[in-house]
Amino acid sequence: MLEARRVRFGYGVRAPVVDGVDISIRPGEIVGLTGRSGAGKSTLGRLLAGYHRPAAGEVLVDGKAHAKGYNTVQYLHQSPIFAVDPRWTVGRIIAEGWSPDEETRQALGVSKSWYDRFPHEISGGELQRIAVLRALGPRTRYLVADEISAPLDPLTQAQIWDALIGAVRKRNLGMLVISHDRPLLARLSGRLVTL
Ligand SMILES: Nc1ncnc2c1ncn2[C@@H]1O[C@H](COP(=O)(O)OP(=O)(O)OP(=O)(O)O)[C@@H](O)[C@H]1O
C-alpha cells in the first residue's frame, strides 16, 4: 500500500499547504484526488512520490519509507517537458526507465521513429505518451498521474488511460489520478478523495 499518514508540508517559511492529510492507495486500486485550485493536490502527489520530505507525518511505500534507487512510485507530470532532460533523445529518455516490451509501446502508440528526436521535436501528446511508457518499468508499483491528460486531444487521452488501466490490472499497480475532471474521475477511479 502507498500511504500518507498525517502528513504536513509547506514551501519555505510559508504556512503548510498540506496539513494532517491521510491517504492510501492499495495495489490494483485507482483512487481519484480532486479539490480546488491550490488545495495542495500536486504537493500531496509529490510527497507520495518522495519528491518532498514531510515536515510531520510519514509516507510509506508497502510499509517502508522511500529509499534510494529506482522509485517504485512513478510521478507523471501534467507537462512532460518538465519531466525530461531536453538534451536527451527520446530513446535515451525511455531507456532511463526500462527497455519496454512491444505490447506496452504499441498500446501507447509510441513510434520507434521518434527515438532519435529530442523532446522539442515531438508534440506534447507524443511526449506525454513517452513519459507514461518510461514510467511503466517492471519495478514500478504505484503511479501518481497529476493532470496528465487535460491538454490532450480525446484520442490521445483515451489511448493513455486505456494503457494505464491495462497496466494497473495486469500488474496490480496502484494509481492516484489527480484531476479537476469529475466525469474522468468517475469513469476511472473506484474511490474519490477531495482535498
Ligand atoms: N514550489 C513551490 N514553491 C512555493 N509555493 C508553491 C510551490 N508549489 C506550489 N506552491 C503553492 O502551494 C499551494 C498548493 O499548490 P499545489 O500545486 O499543490 O495545488 P493544487 O491543488 O495541485 O492546485 P491546481 O489544482 O491549481 O494544480 C499553492 O498555493 C501553490 O501556490
Automatic annotation (TrEMBL):
Keywords on record: ATP-binding, Nucleotide-binding, Transport
Protein family: Belongs to the ABC transporter superfamily.
Record's protein name: Putative D,D-dipeptide transport ATP-binding protein DdpF
Gene Ontology biological-process annotations: transmembrane transport
Pfam annotation, one family: ABC_tran
Underlying gene: ddpF_2
The keyword Glycoprotein is annotated on this UniProt entry: no
GO molecular function: ATP binding; ATP hydrolysis activity
KW NADP (keyword) present: no
Transmembrane residue ranges: none
Domain of life: Bacteria
Domain ABC transporter as annotated: residue spans: 2-195
